[in-house]
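Bench notes, afternoon.
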Amino acid sequence: MLATCQNNPDDKIKFMLKWLEDTYGERATRGDKGTMQQMEAEANRLQALLDAQKEKTAGTTDDEKPEDRGSEHHSDSSVSKMIL
């Protein structure tokens, strides 16, 4: 996980698999191929959900909204008009 965070690859799953193979050799790739395919399918499904949520909420975070200027930014004339 640390290597993934440090490198921040576009395809995190493939990066992690390659890292495991490079680090642990053949041991990393032994096992049930069906389970691996299920995990990849689930990772793809979750990535699609994440992408859809990001698209749905784009422009709605505080960082993306224009700054709301409160009364401390009003000019003297606008404050006078608000009082009247």
